[in-house]
Write a sequence for this structure.
């Protein structure tokens, strides 16, 4: 089985991706990729919980990727974040986007954007261990990752 770094290097090579400095991206670009990365992480977790009807998978996933859940997760891990990570979150939270989630308050939306910016930053910086640590800790703290989940 391939290691995570080795397989990611192959992924970058196959798609001819250039080296990227995560700190050079705007917070909204970080949130853009972070949204997708977080969603695939949650979908992977939800699917791993069992082979159930797709509509049940979707409902569970939607509950964890909505802005209010992302805000709750971010608040749950805030004290565990480094100053660098908090700065990324603040930049994402304070970024002015032209849209807002239809089922979220402005505070939830902004906090979720900060969380997604952090996820995107860690992903683009290829800090996968830290990304997994932050998300799993958050899920644990909000009651979505329990002992029987194998953690």
């Amino acid at each position: 089985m391939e290691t995570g770094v080795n397989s990611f290097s192959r992924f970058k090579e196959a798609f001819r991706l250039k080296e990227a400095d995560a700190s050079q991206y705007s917070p909204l670009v970080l949130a853009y990729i972070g949204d997708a990365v977080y969603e695939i992480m949650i979908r992977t977790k939800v699917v791993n919980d069992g082979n159930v009807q797709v509509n049940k998978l979707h409902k569970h996933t939607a509950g964890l990727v909505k802005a209010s859940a992302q805000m709750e997760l971010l608040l749950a891990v805030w004290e565990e974040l480094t100053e660098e990570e908090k700065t990324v979150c603040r930049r994402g939270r304070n970024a002015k986007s032209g849209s807002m989630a239809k089922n979220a308050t402005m505070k939830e939306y902004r906090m979720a954007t900060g969380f997604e910016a952090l996820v995107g930053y860690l992903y683009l910086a290829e800090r996968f261990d830290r990304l997994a640590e932050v998300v799993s800790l958050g899920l644990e703290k909000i009651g979505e990752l329990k002992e029987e989940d194998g953690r």
User: Anything to note?
Assistant: Helices lie at 4-14, 27-48, 54-65, 67-77, 83-94, 106-124, 128-141. The longest helix spans residues 27-48. The CA atoms of residues 34 and 120 lie 4 Å apart.
